[in-house]
C-alpha cells in the first residue's frame, strides 16, 4: 500500500484529510492520476487490480473515494464488480466509486450504474474533468 503526501498549508487540511484510492491495471495511468491528486493535496493510495483494492479495503483501508477502471481483468474482477462488492458490504456501502471508462464503453452505462457506482469519467479526460469529478464525489 502506497500513501503519497505532499507539504500542505493549514488551508489545505480539509483536502488533505481526503484519501483517494486509484485502481487501474495500467501503472502509467495510476501514476498520472495519483500525481495529479497529490499536487492538489489529496492523500492517495493505489491498487493494480480490483482484487488488490478489495484486499486493502478488507484490511481496513477506508478511502473517501475510489476511482476504478471499468475494464480490468486481473483476478477476474472489473470496476463494476468492485463497486458491487463495496455496495454489498455494510461497512463500505457508503464509499463513493467513480468508474473510468473509454468512450466506447459508455454504452454499458447500465452495468456501472446497476453496480452502484457514483459516477463515470470518460477517457481520455482532462485534469479539470478529473478534479471536478473528485470534488463532486467528496463533498
Note down, in words, how this protein is organized.
With 139 residues, the chain is α/β, with parallel strands linked by helices. 39% of the residues lie in helices and 19% in strands. The chain has 6 helices and 5 strands. It has helices at 13-16, 27-39, 50-58, 79-88, 109-114, 127-138, and strands at residues 19-23, 43-47, 65-69, 97-102, 119-123. The chain has a 5-stranded parallel sheet, sandwiched between helices. Helix 5 links the parallel strand 4 and strand 5. The longest helix has 13 residues, at 27-39. The protein is globular, with a radius of gyration of 14 Å.
Could you outline the blueprint of secondary structure elements for this entry?
Layout: H1 13-16, E1 19-23, H2 27-39, E2 43-47, H3 50-58, E3 65-69, H4 79-88, E4 97-102, H5 109-114, E5 119-123, H6 127-138
Parallel strand pairs: 1-2, 1-3, 3-4, 4-5
Helix pairs in contact: 3-4
Helix vs. strand class: alpha/beta
Helix content: 25-40%
Q: What count of domains describes the coordinates?
A: 1
CATH class type: Alpha Beta
Q: Give the strand order of the largest sheet, numbering strands 1, 2, ... along the chain.
A: 2-1-3-4-5
Q: What is the alpha-carbon Rg in Å? A: 14 Å
Unreliable stretches, pLDDT < 50, 5 or more residues?
1-15
What is the molecular shape?
globular
- CATH fold name: Rossmann fold
N-C termini distance: 25 Å
Amino acid at each position: 500500500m502506497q500513501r503519497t503526501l505532499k507539504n500542505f498549508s493549514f488551508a489545505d487540511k480539509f483536502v488533505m484529510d481526503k484519501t483517494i484510492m486509484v485502481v487501474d491495471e495500467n501503472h502509467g495511468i495510476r501514476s498520472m492520476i495519483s500525481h495529479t491528486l497529490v499536487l492538489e493535496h489529496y492523500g492517495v493510495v493505489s491498487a493494480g487490480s480490483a482484487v488488490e483494492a478489495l484486499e486493502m479495503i478488507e484490511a481496513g483501508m477506508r478511502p473517501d473515494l475510489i476511482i476504478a477502471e471499468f475494464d480490468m481483468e486481473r483476478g477476474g474482477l472489473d470496476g463494476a464488480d468492485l463497486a458491487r462488492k463495496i455496495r454489498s458490504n455494510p461497512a463500505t456501502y457508503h464509499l463513493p466509486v467513480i468508474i473510468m471508462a473509454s468512450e466506447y464503453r459508455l454504452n454499458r452505462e447500465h452495468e456501472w450504474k446497476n453496480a452502484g457506482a457514483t459516477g463515470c469519467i470518460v477517457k481520455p479526460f482532462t485534469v479539470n474533468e478529473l478534479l471536478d469529478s473528485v470534488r463532486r464525489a467528496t463533498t
